[in-house]
Amino acid sequence: MGRLSRAQAQERNRARVLAAARSEFAEHGFRDAKVDGIAQRAGLTRGAVYSNFPGKRALYFAVLAELAERAPEPPHPEPGRTAREALGALARAWVAGLPLADVGEQHGMARLGMYLLPEVLAEERTRRPFAQLMKVDAILLGLALEGLRPAGAPAGSLVRVAEAVLTTLHGAHQLAAAAPGFVEPFNVVSACEQLAALDLHDWWSPTHVITQVRETDAPWSPPHALDAVRGEPALLRGDGVVAVLGLHRLEAVEEAVRAAPPGTRITAAVVTGDPDELAPLARLAVAELCRCLRQAFPPSAWPRVQVVFDESGALAAAAGLPAVGDGTEAAVRIEADRIVACADGRGACHAITSALASAPAPSAPGPVGRTRTGPTGRTGLG
């Protein structure tokens, strides 16, 4: 075997550290796990561990994210499911991974995630991004529920219903960790099924911030990336809108989705000023939801928005943003692999997609209708 390059050696050491950390956390729990113990398990020095991860919490988030992203998936369901059936399947997939019985194990793989919420709550720098990540999960689930709406049924947002479902599931997750044996999985599934009929009179109101859209003409050469919603390579070539969103502005993806004409491909490129710790937390939050979503909803109902984690900033740079942070909100419109319009600042996502909606359609005369803003507002995704 030839000698490994520096990049290959770093990748191998990173994998060894992750595997060792997974064992250390499972055996001792997050609080009692030691970086020295992780280094010993990996056959590396303590310095080598810190050269790959800035601290134990970052390593913990990365371990959980990897487990969520690599979890095996059953075949996708066939079309024809109702929203009630899909939510029941989603809940069953969710509770399948919970430690539902007290078997005398304080730690172990099934209880590996029990320290996640306490670590998120520990600092504002993790709480604020996590709140936005929960909003993204609710948007994705809400759009999937809207995708199952029967023909002729009243339109409207189902994001608030999705929030109620996620509140139920995350509550079950925390109680399963704090009070083993208390959570009855059948009741959790039944409760989520009942939420399909919940009417919260939800509607989407567009941003009131006016952001200027600038016409431009620049090449569009995006890097390869993974779509976290579908778990497959993202489609970044061709026409569409790319929203570059920091972890404090993730909810703006709904503004892009709702204001866009039907069929517009929307990609949310998630960026952060702290990729070592916050990027794994973001990957974990979306992967947990989307893994269950793909098991419960047929592909025809999956939300027509891509989520890409741009940890290196390469995708943002391709969109003309050399520097990004957690407060970033910018959007570009792509046509024929050229950037033809851009906007940045609060409201950029709505500005780009609403300008696209008001432009004349190339295949038919007249403008494409704007987004409705009342209780019967459309999704903008077709």
SSE blueprint:
Elements: H1 6-32, H2 35-42, H3 46-52, H4 56-70, H5 83-95, H6 116-121, H7 124-147, H8 159-178, H9 185-194, E1 214-219, E2 226-227, E3 232-233, E4 240-246, H10 253-259, E5 266-271, H11 278-296, E6 305-309, H12 314-318, E7 329-335, E8 338-344, H13 348-358
Parallel strand pairs: 4-5, 5-6
Antiparallel strand pairs: 1-8, 2-3, 4-7, 7-8
Helix pairs in contact: 1-2, 1-4, 4-11, 5-8, 5-9, 5-11, 7-8, 7-11, 10-13
Write up what this structure looks like.
The protein is α/β, with parallel strands linked by helices and about 375 residues long. It folds into 3 domains: about 5-70, Homeodomain-like (Arc Repressor Mutant, subunit A, Orthogonal Bundle), CATH 1.10.10; about 85-195, no CATH class; about 215-280 and about 300-360, Glutaredoxin (3-Layer(aba) Sandwich), CATH 3.40.30. Helices cover about 45% and strands about 10% of the residues. It contains 13 helices and 8 strands. It has helices spanning about 5-30, 35-40, 45-50, 55-70, 85-95, 115-120, 125-145, 160-180, 185-195, 255-260, 280-295, 315-320, 350-360, and strands spanning about 215-220, 225, 230-235, 240-245, 265-270, 305-310, 330-335, 340-345. The protein has a 6-stranded mixed sheet. β2 (about 225) and β3 form a beta hairpin. α1 packs across α4 (about 55-70). The radius of gyration is 22 Å and the shape is globular. It starts with 5 loop residues before the first helix and ends in a 24-residue tail after the last helix. Mean pLDDT is about 90; it is low at about 360-380.
